[in-house]
Amino acid sequence: MISKSDFVARFGGIFEHSPWVAERAFDRDGSIAQTVEAVHAALVAAFRAAAEAERLAVLRAHPDLAGKLAIAGALTEDSKAEQASAGLDRLTPAEHTRFTELNDAYTEKFGFPFIIAVKGLGKDDILEAFERRIDNNPQEEFEAASAQVERIALLRLRSMLAGEENA
Q1: If pLDDT is split at 50, 70 and 90, which confidence band does 75 have?
Q2: What residues are labeled active site?
């Protein structure tokens, strides 16, 4: 059986800069099977059981897409790879300007950055989702962003555990 400290060390980064999600998942059920489905379910349950302010802090821990942290090279390795896979590290100046405008407007309206699981998406898909979701009301967007955080967690877990489950 895995210890709490080992579980948190392994899965504490799945929810961006929020190891408390893994800590609470372990506290709820320390015998979590080390499969994508089991770990994801435990992490999501802990995230969903948290107070709204704590969930908001998770949303706020995510970087802007193609934003200042990306330019400064200060993204987590996961975020860096995810944004690069969607071509966000290769924007034209006009595209970068549009992302910056949308990031600023979105953050001003909702109080957290636009979050989308970018795997399998291109920059045009992301811009389309950005422009569609910016018209949501705050509660709709809080739920949409939370669902995207959970999807990002699933994709990160699949990447992390895929080789182990097939071994």
Answers
A1: low
A2: 62
pTM, to two decimals: 0.87
Can you give 66-99 as a three-state secondary structure string? CCHHHHHCCCCHHHHHHHHHCCCCCCCHHHHHHH
3-state secondary structure of 6: helix
Name the helix (H) or strand (E) containing 156.
helix 138-165
Q: Which CATH class is domain 62-149?
A: mainly alpha
What residue ranges do the domains of the chain occupy?
Answer: 62-149
Q: Which two tokens stand for residue 38?
A: 């089991």
Mean pLDDT of all residues belonging to the chain? 88
The Cα–Cα gap between 33 and 94 comes to 47
Separation between Cα atoms, residue 85 and residue 123, nearest integer Å: 10
What is the Cβ-side half-sphere exposure of residue 69, based on CA atoms within 13 angstroms? 14
